[in-house]
Write a structure and sequence with these properties.
Blueprint lengths: L1 H11 L2 E2 L5 E8 L2 E3 L3 E4 L2 E5 L3 E7 L4 H5 L8 E6 L4 E5 L1
Length: 91
């Protein structure tokens, strides 16, 4: 039984993507707000079209303010490597 269940889970699992880049879809995300300055960050979890999964930050500093109040889940994005971590741009 355990082997069958492990195989089922492995068949649908998204493996973490090393050096993530390319197109994908946001499956979870939020807009982080600062009390004084408002929206400051837009971290998201992205399922890549290539099959991996990664966390990324918005590439543009204006993105959190422009996306505040919007639904991020389901948004198509393009990932590239930023300064130390993946960053995303809307497609």
């Amino acid at each position: 039984f355990c082997g069958d269940e492990e195989a089922r889970i492995a068949s649908v699992a998204h493996l973490p993507a090393d050096n993530a880049h390319g197109d994908g879809v946001i499956v979870a995300g939020t807009i982080v707000h600062d009390r004084q300055t408002g929206p400051v960050s837009a971290p998201v979890l992205v399922d890549l079209d290539s099959g991996g999964r990664t966390v990324a930050l918005a590439a543009e500093s204006s993105a959190p303010a422009s996306l505040s109040g919007a639904t991020l889940v389901g948004m198509r994005v393009r990932l590239r490597q930023g300064d130390g971590c993946p960053v995303w741009d809307p497609r």
